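Dissemination and training. As part of the outreach component of the grant, students in the summer workshop were shown how a complex can be specified as a set of sequence lines and then modelled as a single object. The example used during the hands-on session is reproduced here so that future cohorts can follow it. Participants entered these lines:
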Amino acid sequence: MLKETDRRMYLGSLFLRINVHKKFHSGCSDLMHILTRNVLGFAHRFCQSCLYLIVALCVATPTVSDIHAQPSKARTELQQTTIQGYVRDAETGETLLLATVSIKGTTKGVTTNGSGFYSLTTDLTGEQILQARFVGYDMVEKEINLDSESTIRLDFELPPENLTLEEVVVESERDKEALKNIGVAQLKTEQIKKLPAVFEPDVFRSVQLLPGVKAASDYSSGLYIRGGGPDQTLILLDETTVYNPSHFFGFFSTFNPDAVKDIRLFKGGYPAEYGGRLGSVLSVYNKDGNRNERTGGLSIGLLASRAYIEGPVGDGSYMFAVRRSTLEPLLAALRQSVDAIPSTFYFYDINGKVTQSVSENDQLSVAFYTGQDIVALPFADDADIRLNYGNRTLSTSWKRILPRNWFTTLTFTGSTYQNKPNFTIAGTPFSQRNEISDVSIKFDAEHQPSPTHDLKMGLWAGNMILSLRNRFDGEETFRNRIQANYASVYFQDEWRPNDRWVARAGIRVNAFSEGNYIEPEPRLSIEYRPVPTVRIQAAYGRYSQFLTLISNEAFSGFDTWLTVDDGVPPAYGDQWILGIKTEPFDGYGFDVEFYARTMNDLFELDPFLPDAAGLDYDELFRFGEGFAYGVEVFFERQVGRFTGFVGYTYGVTRRKFPGFNAAIGSDTPRFYPPKYDRTHDANIVATYRLSDRWTANAVFSYGTGQAYTEPLGRTQYPRQPWNNEENDVLLVGKVNASRLPANHRLDLSFSRQGRFFDIADSEFQIQLINAYSRRNVWFYQYDFDENPVKQTTVPLLPILPAFSYTLTF
Amino acid sequence: MKVRSPLSLLLISVCSLALWSCSPYEQDSYQQEYIVEAYLIAGQQFPDVTLTTSSELFDSFTLRDQRVDGATVIIESGDTGQLMTYQQIDSSGIYTPTDTTQKIEATATYDLTIDIPDKDTPIRATTTVPEPLTVLGGITDRVVYQSSEQLEILVSGSPAGQQRFFIFNTIADDPKSEDLTPFYKSTLEDSDGDVVIEDFYKVSSGILNEANFFDENGNTVLRLPWLAVSFYGPNAIVANVLDKNSYDFVRSQSVQLGGSTLSPGEIQNVINHVEGAVGIFGSISSDTIYTTIERNPLLDFSPVDPDKAMQ
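and obtained this result:
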């Protein structure tokens, strides 16, 4: 079906299709006017943010009289003591997220938040022992006297486990309490680095191994979580939204594992402190840096090389990490014998973070990220493509421990995304410039008024500018700029009336200025523990989304975001989750989660729109609905030489859009599964420590073949007045009612730890991707030049060896 | 007992989910469809009407084998009072008008009716011919390829409040392989034989909205992109305005070939406005100008190898 010319024009036509037009605006030709408007615009937005900040601080910051309140008096009346502080890695000083702090001999325990901070309020008295635990670290106990003060500051520093084989077998004691919250999964950076990965360790590809998370294909790092597309997952890097977290046309995510400390995934039913997406939240935390000594690393791989350095500075730490593709030698070699090799092709990431403890109770941090993809591809004489896209983020946060059990975080965020593809074909240039500029201020407060209640509240307000500008053949064909204010407030109470029950109720209200939409979102979750090793959980939540992403599963290089507006209402949906989480044996976990969700008012670019010039904004979209449901099973072993997990997902996803997937002769649409729908999906991840130096890892993936539309018939329309082609046309039945062959693959990696001339620790890793060379199918093509039609297979990745060498000094 | 209760709940949920998940989404079976194709062009005689049937995908296919004989074909217009009957000259599935003197009138609505002996209900379709399109000025006899002076054509304006949808095509008057422009020459050479030079005799722009061509005075000025020129030498430049049927057909047909936001393999039928069959009964208004595209001596592209190009 795709002729050579079609293939050549594929990228071009895709580019043309996503040239969305809202209204025609005359361009600003006066440079000074542009500069003045931008400066004034930024000042205006900054003032708006400051206004929100003042309101937030007035609401949440205690007054001077509050701070000087009589603690002894309060203690006499309430007989309560609050213990609070940070939990850190003893070697690096990094804060540990979701570490558990509990009072020995009781079931009283809390987990650290996204800042590594905990606050435990108890009505116990006298001498007690406090325990802090975290996966991969030795437990630390500290004695405290609860009669002395009403508020006790107690920081923990946990030493990493000594990973000799015997100790691992005998002494490992894991507690993943916080990870047992409904819909939550967490990945450690070290785990990501060890897993076999195509060319390069990748955060998103590791996340895709978790139950409930699917990959569109071997070529895509996009996250398809519980029936939602990539735009239904909010991607946060240090609390800052990242709009296009991909490199290499979607092959890799933008997150450099060297810079990442932690990844927390809320697959669904996420709490009120998050919002803005219909489905899920992936929160990535940069490393703070080593507070105790200067360290660094260098890694050389086939696709990219990485370097990082971290260390103490002042009363805090810094971290810088760089990653750059190193494809140039390979491309130069290929260029000698293969056509259409890019003349320029590279990407890079730079991450940095500086953290300072201003006082015992105040911590400031600044984090930034910048990444870019640059591609130049001459694909024929007088024809070339140039792509340039990337993200930049900046976040500044002030964490403060306040009296009366308050912990506050004030964050300024800035995020930009630019996408500037240019084509020149036969002397005809066309280009697009899509930019997002998002500045916001966030204020979050946590408060424990009593041992049975944990309150969280906050607001998030910002200003977003989405601009889109298209030029065709030297003329500006479209220019559009949407500036929108958005704001969210939330309040959440976690109530633990006794040791068996935990209830979390919250409300979030989102507002968006374009179209004046206000969306209230109630959230509720309940947990019951019939026995200490069994948790039964249920959750409900409503979620809304003001943005939609124009993308293509096969190629993320042109990703463009659009917003709601008049006539384009926000999408919304409900989620229901029921789960049971158990620890059948010490060090083992067995979890089952059921989920069901609806998706209403889904808005996405009409795929049949050839050109949007002159159309009203709402005419660009099609509006539909959908639903998804399924069950996820997760079994893990975290002790001994042999560790890993098995994840299985049974899932069903359906969508419906007017006029789409109607029977011939009918206008009635039918629900259909999107391509990424997989009924059965299973992953086995295993790690075996062969010796002190050698470790073997294996990942086996199996999934039902993806949905595709099997053509049933064909015909021709050879008389079109505007061309002289035969115009082959397919007749199809239900959209995506057929399935490709089952998809499965085994990836292996072996790593050896060692020393590099007594200068640095070293790790050599060799990998074999798709070890038995399964030729999984991406999709089928139909060649009408053959008679009868010939079906050809477009395969996924073949067997691929890879290696990397990493030095850590 | 305390544990058993939630486990029972779990069991019930599993059973419910299993039942829920049994809703079938089975693929349809192939049904042969009648296929209609006809395009009315304002100012020209009534067009031929092609009537065939579809074929199973992997069957050997020729349009002639799929012809439908013995049908009664009529096109009529209540607006103009025209009634055109059709006859089948040979067994090609092509029906030709019995009167070649009558012309299609712009803005008129035409109805197609086809009766097939072994079909219970007739095939029906309707189209309204777009407003006439007239080139008002800007015709240049000669243009140098990829020079700063592009061909710009001023055409008649659209009805108030309506946007027109254009397809432009460039038709080479005397196409020779040595006259291919560099991009098309390269495409032909690199195609491994699945592209032939005839593919470039008539180059189509795809659908373009009129709003792309409004100048500062609100006039519609069509600027011919160099991409639309496949051959040096004399060319006919045709501007076509599509009716809704043609617009829907072309935009959905092109998506079948990929290039949309749809995932690879997610194929949809073309948008169909024919009752009782599948196909297109559309109409266009068009106007044509003629110009000669001259080589640009400042461009440095190697000469084409005629033998290779003709493979």
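Residues 1-77, 163-175 of chain A have pLDDT under 50 and may be disordered. Students were then asked to discuss how this feature might be tested experimentally.
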